Amino acid sequence: MPERLETWTVLKVLTWTKGYLAEKGVGNARLEAEWLLVHALGLDRVGLYVNYDKPLTGPELAMIRGLVARRARREPLQHILGTQEFMGMEFEVSPSVLIPRHDTEVLVDEAVKRAVPKGRILDIGVGSGCIAAVLARLLPESEVFGVEKSPEAMELAQRNLERFTVKVTLFEGSLFEPFLGQTFEMIVSNPPYIPTGDLETLQPEVRDFEPRGALDGGPDGLEFYRAIIPAAPEFLAPGGWVIFEVGIGQSSEVLAIFGTTGRFGELFTAKDQGMIERVVGGRLL
Ligand code: GLN
User: Fold this and answer.
1) In degrees, to the nearest 5, what angle opens at C-alpha 198 toward C-alphas 95 and 80?
2) Ligand 1 centroid to residue 279 C-alpha, Å
């Protein structure tokens, strides 16, 4: 915002912010401008609309300027606001975790369809805790466990789970390491699946601000599927399911990995709202 001696009303700041963010390559600039103002002014969106003509104070303008500058540098809106909604629950997020994506709802839906009463469910790579927390809420009779290798992510996931008062038992570690000798009725995971070489082509919000450890799936993006699928039978109860989120174009390769073990049947895929095959799963034979 140019610092001229004129009255900056809510509407004027909103219009200016929208134009500035759009110029910096931010999509949905109008909506994002609204969220930044809502956050800075402590209003809700209706509050913003009814205050269009209200002049902003110097400190309010300074606060908004700071937030807009961050977003213009392509820092994710969710890092600025500190939260992201996932399936009706609001999760705290930080640069230590993947921001929950709406695409991941398909994984949760497919898991809920196949859950058995009082089953044990393991989420590999909990990140913010979004999958584990929603499963624990939707399936209150299940026992949900999670594993996460990043201590910073663990801390944040723990906070999210405590805030929602859902019961999920978290372990710090790699893949199945904390669960030797245990079995689960279901294993779910949204592992890192971006091929290493593609990381640089991602939008700046993801490339520069989200944790590499949550994105990088190795040279072809399939490293974690290759690590988890062959190891999973040892950790599955009879008839147990393994259900994954996958990246664009990866479903047939992940199905093939299930196939080569010879241990899984009832293989399935499910599409997201963009008609992309987003989930792949199979059941222990
Ligand atoms: N399970 C978390 C999510 O789906 C984190 C996934 C990840 O970091 N790859 O958001």
Assistant:
1) 20
2) 14
